[in-house]
Fold this sequence. Notes:
Elements: E1 3-5, H1 9-16, E2 28-31, E3 51-57, E4 70-75, E5 83-84, E6 96-102, E7 114-117, H2 121-129, E8 136-141, E9 147-152
Antiparallel strand pairs: 1-5, 1-9, 2-3, 3-4, 6-7, 6-8, 8-9
Amino acid sequence: xxxxTALPTAIVQAYRAGAPxxxxxxxxRAVSNGDGNPCRHCLxxxxxxxxxxxxxxxxxxxxxxxxxxxxxxxxxxDCPRGGGADLPPILTTSxxxxxxxxxxxxxxxxxxxxxxxxxxxxxxxxxxFADPDIAYIHVRSARNNCYxxxxxxND
Length: 155
């Protein structure tokens, strides 16, 4: 069964302490409106009225043509790291998401990318992981292309 993987706590703690984002800027602070502000650490929406961080994140090591950078939100205060086999709450708040598979060298495996209805995510993930060349999957916003979570093989 695949595992939904949140950002590592050490990375999130560094951002909370003011570490620079992917563009070298400190994370911006904002207040959540309670809707559409998914935390990439607890994998839940940042609660309405709570402080949050907004920053550019690159969920890849190194720089290469496929190393996309984009905005993410994080709870400004400590939150438990989310993840596991169950569909995380942040992947149930939109009607659909962009799902795409990557190879071990962090390249998109063409033909895996698809806008997928939220209730169909688990089935799409299983279909993508049927290809042994897929090392992991990214879930992104279907509307804004923002990184949501990583999905890892668990076999």
